[in-house]
Design brief:
about 90 residues; mainly alpha; Leucine-rich Repeat Variant; globular
Length: about 90
């Protein structure tokens, strides 16, 4: 897979990306940070990142920023070859 566009935010650490996904939306400076964080975790294929992406995927908040973060979490899990995880979360 072409990885040219994986690291679009080089200053964003795994810890900060996880923080952005777990923080309440109203506490974020920019509401699109959740989407950026979910996208950026493709650079950190750790158990911790995968678990946060799963948690994001399970979030049922209907607000647009949560919806697009869920969509990006699915894409990121797919890029990390975690298709089985996506299937288990969506089906069960």
């Amino acid at each position: 897979m072409d990885k040219r566009f994986f690291n679009l935010f080089p200053g964003l650490s795994e810890e900060k990306a996880i923080f952005l996904l777990e923080a309440p939306l109203e506490e974020l400076e920019d509401k699109s940070d959740r989407y950026i964080a979910a996208s950026h975790l493709v650079n950190f294929p750790s158990v911790r990142s995968i678990n946060v992406l799963i948690k994001t995927l399970q979030d049922t908040n209907p607000v647009l920023e949560h919806k697009i973060a869920r969509r990006k979490a699915i894409e990121t899990l797919g890029r990390l070859n975690e298709i089985g995880v996506i299937y288990r979360v969506i089906v069960y």
